[in-house]
Amino acid sequence: MNLAVQKLTQSLVAIKSINKQYLMDDNSRKKVMQEVYILKKIRHHNVVHFYETFETDKYILMVMELCGGGDLLNYVRKRRRLKEDLAKYFFRQIIEALNYIHHKNIVHRDIKLDNILLDHHGNVKICDFGVSKLVRPGETMTEQ
């Protein structure tokens, strides 16, 4: 991730850059485009906000909301344990975000503490939809 300033609003944003050199096969490129498609489809206050994507000769760049609070894994490691009220506060936000995502027929498939970010107010933002999948209602997934 890189830090940048959005010229229009003068706000800080995060830019995820993906080297095209590692997207040699169609499957890898399709996976990146799937992530972009899913991020464009969802808007929730507990999911990282996606602004735009663009390409250079060497990179695919994804511009997203900056979550200056870091990830939940490092947050918990620093404190060693969370007080129950704070744990409930985070857990409620995670459940609300997952409920929203599931209502959009999206399965994240990689929920872990390092894919849960905190914004500068300490609110949860779910990120990294790289292995997510769109499913049809009632569809049973058979892959890992």
How would you characterize this protein structure?
The protein is α+β, with helices and mostly antiparallel strands and 144 residues long. It has one domain: Orthogonal Bundle (Transferase(Phosphotransferase), domain 1), CATH 1.10.510.10. It contains 3 helices and 8 strands. The strands form 3 sheets. Strands 1-2-4-3 form a 4-stranded antiparallel β-sheet, with helices on one face. A hairpin with a 3-residue loop joins β3 and β4. The longest helix has 20 residues. It is globular. The two termini are 27 Å apart. The mean pLDDT is 92.
Q: Any key phrases for this structure?
A:
144 residues, Transferase(Phosphotransferase), domain 1, 3 helices, 8 strands
Distance from N terminus to C terminus (CA atoms, Å) equals: 27 Å
User: How many DSSP H or I helices?
Assistant: 3
SSE string: EEHEEHHEEEE
**What is the tally of beta strands?**
8
Structural class: alpha+beta
> What is the CATH topology descriptor?
Transferase(Phosphotransferase), domain 1
Strand order of the largest sheet: 1-2-4-3
Broad shape:
globular
Outline the secondary-structure elements.
Elements (H helix, E strand, L loop, with lengths): L1 E4 L6 E8 L6 H16 L8 E6 L3 E7 L6 H8 L4 H20 L2 E2 L8 E3 L5 E3 L6 E2 L10
Antiparallel strand pairs: 1-2, 2-4, 3-4, 5-8, 6-7
